[in-house]
Amino acid sequence: NRLPMHIRDYRPDDDPALMILERLSPRGLPEPFVHYRQRFIDRAALFAEHHLLVAEDNGEVIGCVAAGLKQTHVGGRAVRLGYVFDARTHPAWRRRGVASVLVTALDDWLRARGADGVYGHVVASNVASLHLFAKCGYQRLRQLIMLTFQPVPAVTLPDWMPRHLADPLADEERVRATHAARDLYVPDVAARVEDYGFERWSIDLGDGHCAGLSVFDQSYVFQQWPGDLPFPSPEEMHVRRQASLRLFDQVGAQHPALLRAIFDALRDQAVGGHVSKLSLLLDRMDRVPAFLFAEAVTQMDYWMVFKTLNPRWIPDWQDAPIYIDTREL
Fold first, then answer.
1. For residue 287, with 0-12 CB atoms within 10 Å meaning exposed, 13-18 middle and 19 or more buried, which class applies?
2. Is-contact 43 85, C-beta < 8 A?
3. What Rg do the C-alpha atoms of the chain give, in angstroms?
4. Among 251, 239, 262, 312, CA closest to 286
5. DSSP secondary structure letters along 225-250
6. In the predicted model, is pLDDT for residue 1 greater than 50?
7. Confidence class of residue 166 from pLDDT cuts 50, 70 and 90?
8. Is the pLDDT assigned to residue 3 strictly greater than 70?
9. Between β-strands 275-283 and 243-251, what pairing exists: parallel, antiparallel or unpaired?
10. pLDDT of 309 higher than 70
């Protein structure tokens, strides 16, 4: 039966209702969380091309879903892919097909703009979302892991102190040399997060030994909040905001001592910088220094789900780690 609802584009005046919807949609175990943001569209706006759809019934917002669209490559072939996220349904409307209609409508929007496929990242414990995307034709492609670290003062200063490179294009050649061959690589991530506390840190010993690491402050886009606690007022949330540093575009896995020196220096700096945590998202296939796993205080697993939208394209995924776009989680 046709659902009595209307699918339309997002409007700024939807924000209060969408934040209520977010509050009613905790995910992640064992400690469910939600995302607080000043504008619900802020996550989507990290992508140059983006779209946010809203479902409403008699003027009441009952669901939403968002996507970013970008140019990348898979198996060496240039493709346009969508990244789907922020799928939410009001509890009173769940199991009635609202989310399926929204995801299908988003697929149509992506196809109309030449998208060859679409993918998303789902918390591994979110069985309902995994079932939703499977129902909509998505397949589980590979597993990702989110590592979370606490700020820690350095007992001793690293032997090699990293150099701060504020320019988002600094060290670009090394980042490209490390990541550009990977499926899903996009070159504009640093530039897109430049206004959110972006920094690039690098060590170069001048003999071929080098390492680098980028960070941006995710709390400028959204703040992760316990799922069992109500949101404070916007004014209180602004006062309580603590930086949440996302690490990305790591270079130097073959020189773990240098990469560790940057990592330790960043954690030491975070102690006095009102930073609540640091995090790093990795493909499970990625070979990274063991200290990154040893130092993590939490690990959260995600499934990457994927769907082909272009019937003339058969993805030829490489048997290698994908590039992780830090804007995606």
1. exposed
2. yes
3. 20
4. 251
5. EETTS----HHHHHHH--EEEEEEEE
6. no
7. confident
8. no
9. parallel
10. yes
What average pLDDT score do residues 136-155 get? 96
65-to-15, 43, 53, 184 alpha-carbon distances in Å: 13, 12, 5, 21
The secondary structure of 279-320 as a DSSP string is EEEEETT----THHHHT-SEEEEEEEEEEE--TT------SS
209, 254 contact by CB (below 8 A): no
Q: How far is CA 35 from CA 59, 151, 228, in A?
A: 24, 21, 12
Alpha carbons 301 and 280: distance in angstroms, whole number: 12
Mean pLDDT of the chain, nearest integer:
94
Among 318, 287, 322, CA closest to 302: 322
Query: What distance in Å separates the CA atoms of residue 19 and residue 36, rounded to the nearest whole number?
Result: 7
Per the CB < 8 A criterion, the answer to whether 93 and 103 are in contact is no
CA 280/CA 323 separation, integer angstroms: 13
Instruction: Please compute the mean of the pLDDT values over residues 122-149 and round it to a whole number.
Output: 95
Per-residue burial over 113-133, b = 16 or more CB atoms within 10 Å of its CB, e = otherwise: eebbbbbbbbbbebeebbebb
Amino acid, single-letter form, for residue 280:
L
d(CA 36, CA 28): 15
Residue 71 makes CB contacts below 8 A (sequence gap 6+) with 78, 79, 80, 186
Q: Which residues, including other chains, have CB under 8 Å from residue 61's CB and lie 6 or more apart?
A: 14, 17, 18, 21, 54, 55, 90
Q: State pLDDT tens for residues 241-273.
A: 899 999 999 999 999 999 999 999 999 999 999
Cβ 222 vs Cβ 43: under 8 Å? yes
CA angle in degrees (0–180, nearest 5) for 156-158-162: 140
Q: Which whole-number Å values give the CA distances from 166 to 16, 170, 191, in the listed order?
A: 35, 7, 11
The DSSP secondary-structure symbol of 322 reads P
Q: Quick: pLDDT tens for 48-58.
A: 999 999 999 99
The answer to whether the beta carbons of residues 311 and 278 sit under 8 Å apart is: no
Instruction: Indicate the burial class of 57 (C-beta count within 10 angstroms; 0-12, 13-18, 19 or more).
Output: middle
pLDDT for residue 29: 77
